[in-house]
Specification:
3-stranded antiparallel β-sheet, 138 residues, Metal Binding Protein, Guanine Nucleotide Exchange Factor, Chain A, 39% strand, mainly beta, 8-stranded mixed β-sheet
């Protein structure tokens, strides 16, 4: 019998714990100004269909409407940045750093490179988009 892949994750303090069933999108680094402010640097996100996430603990989960196009999920107790959800589609981006084990996930592209600060360079050779690619593709 073929079992579907399950990935677990959570925040720094344990007030948010979740499991994701199924395949996750490869990792995308977002360099937009909002990610810089909420993460302290660029943000690395995987993604999955919203209905694939099950919460084992969500007492700390808070949502912030960061724009009319998206909201951000974080732990209200320890401050960990965990999720980004667009209002226009049914997927959730999951902070790669919140995953207990990233398995075979790898960084594949950079988005919003036009907002990247001058103090670092992107030199890994992965494709770059000046704006969004609203990327669910792997």
């Amino acid at each position: 019998m073929n079992q579907e892949q399950e990935t677990s994750g959570g925040c720094l303090c344990g007030a948010v714990r979740f499991r994701i069933t199924g395949t996750l999108r490869q990792i995308v680094a977002c360099h937009c100004g909002q990610c810089q402010r909420s993460h302290g640097n660029f943000a690395a996100f995987s993604a999955c269909d919203r209905d694939r996430i099950v919460f084992d603990e969500k007492r700390g989960l808070k949502w912030f409407d960061s724009s009319d196009k998206a909201r951000r999920g974080f732990c209200g107790e320890c401050g960990s940045s965990l999720f980004w959800e667009p209002t226009f589609d049914g997927y959730t981006s999951v902070s790669a750093g919140s995953l207990d084990n990233s398995g075979d996930l790898r960084l594949v592209r950079h988005i919003y490179t036009c907002d990247k600060p001058d103090w670092y360079e992107i030199t890994d050779g992965h494709e770059q988009f000046e704006g969004s690619m609203y990327g669910r593709e792997t």
